[in-house]
Amino acid sequence: xxxFRREDYLKKIRGFYHDTEIIKVITGVRRCGKSCLxxxxxxxxxxxxxxxxxxxxxxxxxRGFRKINTPDQLEELIxxxxxxxxxxYLLIDxxxxxxxxxxxxxxxxxxxDYSIFITGSNSYLLSGELVTKLTGRYLEFELxxxxxxxxxxxxxxxxxxVSPDLTSEFDQYLAEGGFPKALQYEGNxxxxxxxxxxxxxxxxxxxxxxxxxKTSVFDTVQRYIINNFGATMSLxxxxxxxxxxxxxxxxxxxxxxxxxxVEAKILYPCGRFDxxxxxxxxxxxxxxxxxxxxxxxxxxxxxxxYGPALENIVYLYTKSxxxxxxxxxxxxxECDFILHRGLQEYSYIQVAMTIMxxxxxxxxxxxxxxxIRDNYPKYLITRNDPIQYRNGILHVxxxxxxxxxxEF
Length: 408
Description:
Order of helices and strands: HEHEHEHEHEHHHHHHEEHHEEEHEEEH
Number of strands: 13
């Protein structure tokens, strides 16, 4: 079966296809497309002349491999399939299913004739022994759900109709999210599919690892954070809000539950940064969703709340481009995002559904950017406004900007 090729990620990995020293670690939330990316790598290896018997591919979530959960079982399975001489390509999906996999993988890396690729659905894959034993010997490639240009590209790939109105397509993308397989479904089926992903993450990436006795309390916390994505939060104000709705919880338990959701890649924390002192601000931060579909799958109200939804999409888009991201504060003003990449590469972003309607609205969105006095690029992103020119700030509409895969 022909696969949709996610070129933005493949081009990052290609240079390491034949590297036996570096383990290629592909991470990302469940169902974001890691297995398909791995299968695409296999396709490209074969196209380059690598023989099929030199490729060992194991998906430990698939029937037949689910009972492989010890290092010895994993090693035996790999050895059974390592018949060929010379360079071999070892690709293992959902390797975190095997406790203690690190020793096995490091052993094959040290053999010197394996190019190794592994995937995992949670960030604790890159904690503990893997980091300790393999520092400097692995690279992480984080995979996200479909970006807007990928969403359009996959619709065309599947033979789905695509509107010539980019804003209309973008609104649909905001509501549905970018889980690749969700594009194969229509209407309510999409929501049911994404609800299933949330349950799968809880069962496989949270409950299995952390002994959660009160699942109803965890569900309440998860729903609260998801419903308030993009809002500035602290543990203190979350505790107060949960108490008001009759769901009191201990501070350490709340902190643990949030960390579990971050590790399972449901949530991404975005800290705040003071531009004057050049220091992080502790205590308060925002949380963005791994996919906007999570919000709409858990809520009966399907109307788009453009403020946080647009921020969320910008956050994921910039993360996928390799930027470090913070919420910026400059005196009494707050800038939605500060992007940082490389040694001295900064840019600033303000996101608004629209700046039309009144001069006060326009000023409110421009003022935080105008208060920053350095010469790094400053962007005002709107949904679909007439483009303005003011004080060197770059005004762009989000759909065409992302569709053309532009960078900040």
